[in-house]
Known about the structure:
The protein is of the alpha+beta class and 211 residues long. Helices cover 21% and strands 21% of the residues.
Amino acid sequence: MRRLILSTLLITPIFAQYSATISNITPTIKSKMIKGHSYHYGCPVSLDKLRYLNITYRDFEGRDRVGELIVHQDIALDTIRVFQRLYEIGYPIRDMRLVSDFGGNDWQSIEADNTSAFNCRNATGTKHFSKHAYGKAIDINPLENPYISRKGHISHRASLKFRKRVHTKNSSEDKALIKNGDKALEIFKMYHFKWGGEWHRVKDYQHFEHR
Length: 211
C-alpha cells in the first residue's frame, strides 16, 4: 500500500502535535465502507480515486485527537492543509468519524455532531448525487452549523439555538459556529472551498465543497 506521510512537511515547531496522513483505500476500509452503507454499487466515483485521511484535531475539551475522513484524491492535500490551519487557530471539532460508523445515515451523523466528508448519497431534497458522493465536500460541526431550508426549517433540535449567526460567549460551541468574517471560513476559502452559508435559497453552514 502506498502511504504518504505529511506531518513532517506540515508541522511547525509551535504546533508540533499536529500530524496528518493520506492513504489509499485499503481492503479493511473498503469493507467498512460497504458494510456501513457509505459506498455501494453505482456510486459516481471509484474507490481508487478516494483517499483515507488521519487528521489531528482539537476537540471541544481542548484535547488533541485523531480523526478520520475520506475525500477525493484531488482534494486530499488541500483538506489536510485546511485542518492544519484550523488546528493552529484552536478551532474546535466535536468528533471526526467516517459516516460508515453511522450506517451511512447522514441524520445520525449530524445528531452526533460529527464532522465528515465522503458519503455516497443524494443531495438533500434532490435525486442527484451530492458533492459528498464524489468525496469533494466536508460537513463540519453540523449542529453548530445547521442546514436551514428555504422556509427556514431546521431539522435538528440541538441546532435551533444556532439559527442566529453571532458569537456571544467564549465556549467551544460558540467557537465552532462559523459565520462571515471568521478565520475558519477564510481558511476554507484559501484552499478553494465554497461555503454553503453563502447559498441564496437555502443555508448550509456546515457544508464546504471544493471548486
